[in-house]
Recover the amino acids of this structure.
């Protein structure tokens, strides 16, 4: 009796594995887009207010689709009362981390309404950053299920 190794099953397994690997990057990007939407929703919820600052926030996908982030829009500017244009990222950062208040410039007998040297930050990005482990765990679970389903389809 001749000894032989039949490689047909291995070829089928390898072609199925290749199909799964080709599908994986697209599925990963789709999942990252969903995570980006969840993070954006949480940031906007934490900002609150009338929606102006919340509307400036947008998701950003990494150039190779390896990560997703939420940040202020880079090409939007806001005009101040004095006519100065500021990128909305500056304004968002001032609201996030707080900012100093200029000294009152009133004349003799002027009593300022504001009696603090700085405005406290809202820390909405920081609050959402603390929620990321739970969000990432759910995304990783979905990705693992996708891989398991793909591997089960191979067998």
């Amino acid at each position: 009796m001749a000894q032989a190794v039949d490689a047909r099953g291995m070829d089928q397994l390898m072609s199925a594995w290749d199909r799964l690997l080709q599908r994986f990057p697209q599925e990963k990007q789709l999942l990252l887009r969903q995570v980006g939407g969840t993070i954006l929703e949480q940031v906007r919820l934490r900002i609150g207010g009338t929606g102006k600052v919340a509307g400036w926030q947008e998701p950003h996908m990494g150039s190779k689709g390896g990560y997703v982030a939420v940040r202020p829009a880079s090409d939007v500017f806001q005009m101040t009362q004095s006519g100065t244009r500021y990128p909305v990222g500056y304004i968002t950062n001032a609201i996030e981390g707080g900012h100093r208040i200029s000294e009152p410039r009133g004349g003799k007998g002027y009593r300022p309404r504001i009696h603090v040297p700085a405005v406290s930050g809202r820390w909405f990005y920081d609050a959402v950053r603390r929620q990321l482990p739970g969000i990432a765990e759910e995304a990783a679970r979905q990705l693992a299920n996708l891989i398991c389903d793909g591997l089960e389809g191979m067998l």
Summary: The mean pLDDT is 85. Residues 8-47 form the longest helix (40 residues). The longest strand covers residues 57-61. The radius of gyration is 26 Å.
